[in-house]
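Q: Convert this sequence to C-alpha cells.
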Amino acid sequence: MLLRRSTRLIKPHIGLYSTIVEPKLNLEEFRTKENDPVNHSKQHIGKFYKIDDGLKKKLFGQGGLPKKYEKQIKTFNEACLMVRPQAVEVMDYINRTDFSKPVVRYLLYGERGAGKTMTMAHLVHYGHQNGFCLVHVPYAPDWYKRPKEFGPSATHEGMVDLPLDAAAWLIHFKLQNNDLFTKNDVRISKTYDWSKREQTAAGSKFIELVDHGINRAKYASDVIAALMDEIKIASTAGKIKTMVLIDGYNSFFYEQTRVFSDTRKKHPVTPDKVTLTQPFINITNYDWCNGVCVLTADIIGMLGWERESYLPRYLLGKEGFEHLDPFVPIKVDKYDERQFDSCISYYVNRKWIQNTSEGFDKELKFLSNSNPYKLMELCNSI
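A:
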C-alpha cells in the first residue's frame, strides 16, 4: 500500500471515539513531474500529471472532460489526469506507426465509469503536444440526445441540420488547432459555393473555411463536411498529420435520436438523416493516410436504457462494426491495485477524503469494485 499510517484519537460525527488514520504521503508515489504526455511511458502508469490551466481551456474549454470531473478540478484547484496503461499503449502504437499507410483505427471500450473519456482526454493532450491536427468530438451522443436546435437542411433534401451544435464544434476545432494552422500555411484545394453570393475560394486558409461556418451557422454542417474532406486531402499530401478522436462513436449507428424532422417533434429521425453524422463517419474511413483514429464505444451513448453489453460488436451494430473493421480494440479496465492506491492517495492529499479511519481504503475498494467513476462518487461524501 502507498499509505504509511500513524494514529490518534478524535471524535467523529457519530459521537463515538475511534481510531483515525493520517497518511504520510510521498508525492512521488502518486504524482509525476513529467507533465508532457509525449514522454509518458510504462514507468508513469498509475501516477497523476498536471495540465496547465491555459492549455486545459484551449483543449477542453468546449468539452472533453466529464462534468463531475470539471467540478472536482475547481475543488482541487488543479487539473490532474492519471496515466492509464491504455493511453500509454495507444501512444506507443502511434509512435511506431508508419504514417504512409492507411489510417489505423483504435477503439476504446469497457464498462461504464472505467475511464474511457479520461483516457481519451490524455490522448487529446498527447496529440496536441505531438503536433497533430485534432479532429476531436467531445461526446457525439449529445448531438442526438440533447440537440441545441434542429431544422430541415437547406442544401440536402430530407436531411436535418443541427446548426448550433455544428457551429459550436467548429469553435472547438478552431480553439484546439488555431496555433497549428497559424504556423502551417495549409490551404483548401477547391472553391466551395454556399449561396449565390457566398463562397470560400480555392487557396483560402483552413481557418477562413472554419470561420465561415462559425459566422454563418446555417452552413456550419456543410462547412464541417468540406473541412473533413480537406483534412483528408492535406494529410495524405503530407501537409499535416491528423488525429481523429471521437467519444461515443457508436451513437452514429443507433436507430433512435431526439432529433425530429419537424418542429412539432412527432417524427424522430435516425442518425444517418442528420447532416453532422456522415462527415465524421467519412473521416474514420481508411481511404487516407498520415493520420490515426481513436474512438470509444460507450455503453450509455445511445438513447434509452444502458446497453446490456459493453463489447464493440454489440454497441457498434453490424453497420458500425463493418465500417471500422479492421480496427484495434483496447479494453479500458477498472483500476488495478497500483492505480487504486494512487487515486486514494491523491484524494487524501487534496483533502477530498478526510475521514481516513482504519481500513477505509479496503472498504472503498470493495464498494467501488475499483471502478474509477464509482470511487469518485463514493468519495464525495467522505
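The mean pLDDT is 89.
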